[in-house]
Design goal:
Layout lengths: L2 H9 L199 E2 L18 E2 L16
Parallel strand pairs: 1-2
């Protein structure tokens, strides 16, 4: 569909553009609030600084799309393919993104507070300084993702995959990481006060200078975990392999 036709129809009141082909379209700064782009082809499209609040992009193809600084709060993107898409500075607060494919995507400083990303694939994604506070991250694949300085307080990481992830200087206060594999993960200077780390595998993880006040490490595996300079209250914890941790 030609861009001018879509914009003209939208202005006339049409909201249903199910399956529309807009591959490579140039739509920077457009206002398409509440639009239905379910199953649409938006590969390589430029939607930077656009307004798609409350939009439905379920199953849409957004591979390599430019969505930087986009406003999409309250939108639905379930099962959308956003592989290698750019969402730097995007605003997607409380959006629904179940099963979305975002491997290799960049979301630097994006605001995804309260989103549902359960079962999403963000393998190798760049989420530096991202806001994922109180997000549902159940079963998300974060392997090799960069979440340095991310704001993740109150997030639910149940059954998430974090192998090789960078969480240095991240804020994880009161987050639920129970049973998650954090072996080899970089958590240097992370802020984790009040986090649930019960039965977590922290083998070889780097928590140097991390903040671990009031953290529950019951049953955690701390074999070769670097805890040098870490702030914690040992009296409140009964880890499974405390004696094998590196304290200095």
């Amino acid at each position: 569909m030609k861009i001018n036709n879509l914009l003209r129809m939208y202005e006339a009141g049409t909201r249903d553009f199910d399956g529309v082909d807009l591959a490579g379209a140039e739509l920077p700064g457009v206002a398409l609030i509440g639009i239905n782009l379910r199953g649409a082809n938006l590969r390589g499209a430029n939607l930077s600084r656009s307004f798609l609040t409350g939009a439905n992009l379920t199953g849409a193809q957004l591979n390599w799309a430019n969505l930087s600084f986009i406003k999409m709060s309250g939108s639905i993107l379930d099962e959308a393919d956003m592989t290698k898409a750019v969402l730097d500075g995007g605003f997607l607060v409380k959006s629904q993104m179940i099963g979305v494919k975002m491997s290799g995507a960049t979301l630097k400083s994006a605001n995804l507070r309260g989103v549902d990303l359960s079962q999403a694939n963000l393998c190798g994604a760049n989420l530096e300084r991202v806001n994922l506070r109180e997000a549902n991250l159940t079963s998300v694949n974060f392997n090799w993702a960069n979440m340095r300085e991310g704001r993740l307080s109150g997030a639910n990481f149940h059954q998430a995959l974090l192998y090789g992830a960078n969480l240095s200087r991240a804020f994880l206060r009161e987050s639920n990481l129970q049973g998650v594999g954090l072996d080899g993960v970089d958590l240097q200077e992370a802020h984790m006060s009040g986090a649930n780390l019960r039965n977590v595998d922290l083998t070889g993880a780097n928590l140097q200078n991390a903040q671990l006040r009031d953290v529950d490490l019951t049953g955690a595996n701390l074999t070769n975990t670097n805890l040098a300079g870490t702030v914690l209250d040992i009296s409140n914890m009964i880890p499974g392999n405390w004696e094998h941790a590196i304290m200095a």
